[in-house]
Design brief:
Blueprint: E1 14-16, E2 46-56, E3 61-66, E4 79-83, E5 90-101, E6 104-109, H1 115-119, E7 125-129, E8 140-142, H2 143-146, E9 150-153, E10 157-166, E11 173-177, E12 184-187, E13 193-197, E14 202-205, H3 211-215
Parallel strand pairs: 9-14
Antiparallel strand pairs: 1-8, 2-3, 2-7, 3-6, 4-5, 4-7, 5-6, 9-10, 10-11, 11-12, 13-14
């Protein structure tokens, strides 16, 4: 079996440290750092490039929502993994054809020959292993790797864990959660997010003046100088 084509899993799975340039994508994810299939270092060994949303027609084609910023690469895809929605199973499949039908793709999978078989794949994922994903540019990270990282501020200390990334605005926004406290929304800009350590699973930030106070109340007598 030949090696799967290389994909950059982006848009819903890629976050970029930005100066002020727009990095846009659609949708909101709720991902857990301890989802099944994670490697011991907390990084997912498999990256999803598309989700099967529905059957198409009567001959086994499926409608796929792409989860990569390079949709044209599906035209080169000959093999990938088919992964269950809960990641409980994964198998190699061969791709017979790909057609564009914005915002989706129409994909024919070898062995899926009628609508009933295609219907059973609703919600399943097309996946590549991390070893076959393209190397990311500097200051780009897979969102699934960032989710679960501890986020600390230079003045206020530990803020919590990164639980989501909003991507429907001019730049990405980290959503940082801590039990019993309001979420902190942090703009993903280079002068705010100054260090990401994937091995330690930590992110160091310097919040803009007044941002912490918007989301979290500072106890009386403990105000910053």
């Amino acid at each position: 079996m030949s090696r799967p084509r290389r994909f950059a899993s982006a848009k819903r799975w890629l976050s970029t440290l930005s100066d002020n340039s727009p990095i846009r994508s659609s949708g909101k994810r709720q991902l857990s750092s301890d989802r099944p299939g994670n490697s011991p270092d907390g990084l997912r060994p498999f990256l999803d490039i598309g989700r099967i949303t529905a059957p198409h027609g009567i001959n086994g084609e499926v409608r796929v929502f792409p989860m990569t910023d390079r949709v044209e690469r599906f035209n080169e895809l000959t093999e990938c993994f088919l992964t269950a929605p809960d990641e409980s199973s994964r198998k190699v499949i061969r791709i017979q054809s790909v057609r564009s039908n914005p915002p989706s793709l129409l994909v024919r999978i070898e062995g899926v020959d009628d609508r009933n078989a295609a219907e059973k794949l609703r919600g399943w994922l097309l996946t590549v292993d991390r070893a076959h994903a393209i190397a990311l540019p500097e200051d780009n990270y897979f969102i699934c790797d960032l989710i679960g990282c501890q986020v600390s501020d230079t003045r206020h200390g530990l803020l919590g864990r990164l639980t989501d990334i909003m991507q429907n605005m001019a730049h990405d926004v980290y959503v940082v959660s801590s039990p019993g406290q309001a979420d902190v929304l942090i703009p993903v800009l280079k002068h705010v997010v100054h260090h990401v350590d994937m091995e330690a699973r930590t992110i160091d930030v310097t919040l803009p003046d007044g941002l912490y106070e918007i989301y979290r109340r500072i106890p009386t007598g403990q105000e910053a100088d």
